[in-house]
């Protein structure tokens, strides 16, 4: 069995964000970087499946981005991946989900992967589109937002998180793709011996131009912080007093009442 996990390196959400000078994305200076949290669940589930099946599966980890994404790939290798693929792209942040999925599907198209794991979405862009687009381009089954996963005899059984706490039961035959939601498992911390082993595992580098020719279907046009607005007003006291205060505010500060 051949397994593929797609991961993304994103800014730490505790970082201070501000728009870049070109107004198309955020300023990357002074940001701390980490593996996308949803993708950690994807890596962990793939490693657990690899451990369940013994030595048979080969687990490949793939990421798209500039040179810094190699650190995220090394973490995934230390968690249990066998090999990594770095699609080198210094402008990955300007690619739309269709372009990202196109690169992944063109790489994976002739590799014979039986099962592909991705995070449900990325924490920085949050489109939740790449996984299902890859599945569609490869013409394989897919299930999203998995919070439970079981595999036996070529059949995946899982639970999807739906709205209002409702879960949906799904079954998929291989080949397939699943996107992983928070809570699916508990991602492991790489141990020091595994971190050292990861340094010897192969990382293949492929130029993005070799896999992509299309322009963006939904190009970014502007990226900006929300406008600051005045704070709200809290009225306290008994109901009749608050009504009088509210009417006074509406007359004084708005055109609702005159």
- List unreliable stretches of 5+ residues: none
**Helix content class:** 25-40%
Order of helices and strands: EEEHEHEHEHEEEEHEH
Number of strands: 11
Distance between the termini: 74 Å
**Global morphology:** globular
Structural class: alpha/beta
As laid out across the biggest beta sheet, the strand order is 9-8-7-10-6-1-4-5-11
- In percent, how much strand structure appears in the residues? 25-35%
**What is Rg?**
23 Å
CATH superfamily of the largest domain: HUPs
- Classify the fold: give the CATH topology of the largest domain: Rossmann fold
How many domains? The number is 2
Number of helices: 6
Average pLDDT, rounded to a whole number, is 91
CATH architecture descriptor text of the largest domain: 3-Layer(aba) Sandwich
What is the CATH C level class of the largest domain, in words? Alpha Beta
Oligomer: single chain
Largest beta-sheet characterization: 9 strands, mixed
Keywords: Electron transport, Transport
Pfam family, one: ETF
Protein name: Electron transfer flavoprotein subunit beta
GO molecular function: electron transfer activity
Descriptors for this entry?
single chain; 258 residues; alpha/beta; Rossmann fold; 2 domains; 9-stranded mixed β-sheet; two-stranded antiparallel ribbon; 28% helix; electron transfer activity
Question: Any chance you could write out the topology, listing elements then pairs?
Answer:
Elements (H helix, E strand, L loop, with lengths): L1 E6 L1 E3 L21 E3 L1 H17 L4 E8 L3 H11 L3 E6 L8 H12 L6 E5 L10 H9 L2 E12 L2 E7 L5 E7 L2 E5 L11 H7 L4 E5 L31 H15 L5
């Amino acid at each position: 069995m051949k397994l593929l996990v797609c991961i993304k390196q994103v800014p730490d959400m505790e970082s201070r964000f501000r728009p870049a000078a070109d107004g198309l994305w955020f300023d990357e200076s002074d940001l701390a970087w980490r593996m996308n949290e949803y993708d950690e669940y994807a890596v962990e589930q793939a490693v657990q499946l690899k451990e369940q099946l013994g030595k048979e599966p080969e687990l490949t980890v793939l990421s798209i981005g500039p040179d810094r994404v190699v650190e995220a790939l090394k973490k995934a290798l230390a968690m249990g991946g066998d090999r990594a693929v770095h699609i080198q792209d210094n402008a990955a942040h300007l690619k739309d989900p269709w372009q990202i999925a196109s690169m992944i599907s063109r790489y994976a198209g002739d590799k014979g992967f039986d099962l592909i794991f991705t995070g449900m979405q990325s924490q920085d862009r949050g489109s939740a589109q790449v996984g299902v687009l890859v599945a569609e381009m490869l013409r394989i089954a897919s299930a999203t937002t998995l919070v439970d996963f079981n595999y036996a005899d070529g059949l995946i059984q899982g639970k999807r998180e739906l709205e209002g706490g409702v879960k949906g039961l799904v079954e998929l035959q291989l080949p397939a793709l699943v996107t992983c939601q928070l809570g699916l498992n508990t991602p492991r911390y790489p141990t020091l011996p595994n971190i050292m082993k990861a340094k010897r595992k192969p990382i293949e580098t492929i130029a993005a131009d070799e896999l992509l020719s299309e322009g963006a279907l939904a190009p970014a046009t502007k990226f900006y912080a929300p406008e600051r607005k005045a704070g709200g007003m809290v009225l306290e006291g008994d109901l009749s007093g608050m009504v009088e205060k509210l009417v006074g505010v509406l007359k004084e500060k708005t055109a609702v009442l005159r």
